[in-house]
Amino acid sequence: MGDGAQGRAAAARGRGLGVGRRRRGGGDEPALASRLTIVTAVDADRELLGVFGDRAERLGVAARLVYGRWLDVAGGVDPADVVLCGHVLYNVADLRPFVGALTR
């Protein structure tokens, strides 16, 4: 890749999706703030979503918080360029539909 293409790739910004908040600190997506235009966080724990939202706001990242289990809410979540799943896959009995919904 030439220098021009690398520079354009480094400057590119996209949408992030985080499924399953993995810690009280709010997950990794806000740490990618400079690379994202918006991040959608999905979790069945309202407290963790709130922590995430607070952290995203402090970092100046637009955030959408979606309460629920991924497969139950996936149809209402916009596509993303980057997907992170923290501490959730080990709880998924059937990975195929779960991961399939992440790729739509």
Q: What does this entry look like structurally?
A:
With 104 residues, this protein is of the alpha/beta class. The protein has one domain (14-102): Rossmann fold (3-Layer(aba) Sandwich). The protein contains 4 helices and 4 strands, in the order αββαβαβα. It has a 4-stranded parallel beta sheet, with helices on one face. The radius of gyration is 14 Å and the shape is globular.
What's the number of structural domains? 1
Overall 3D form: globular
H-E order:
HEEHEHEH
Measured by DSSP, the beta-strand proportion falls in 15-25%
Widest sheet, order of strands? 3-2-1-4
CATH-scheme architecture: 3-Layer(aba) Sandwich
Query: What structural category characterises the helix and strand content?
Result: alpha/beta
**Terminal Cα span:** 28 Å
The number of distinct β-strands equals 4
Overall mean pLDDT: 81
Round the Cα radius of gyration to an integer and report it: 14 Å
Helix content: 25-40%
How many individual helices? 4
Low-pLDDT parts are: 5-10
Query: Which CATH class applies here?
Result: Alpha Beta
Largest sheet: 4 strands, parallel
CATH topology: Rossmann fold
The CATH homologous superfamily is termed Vaccinia Virus protein VP39
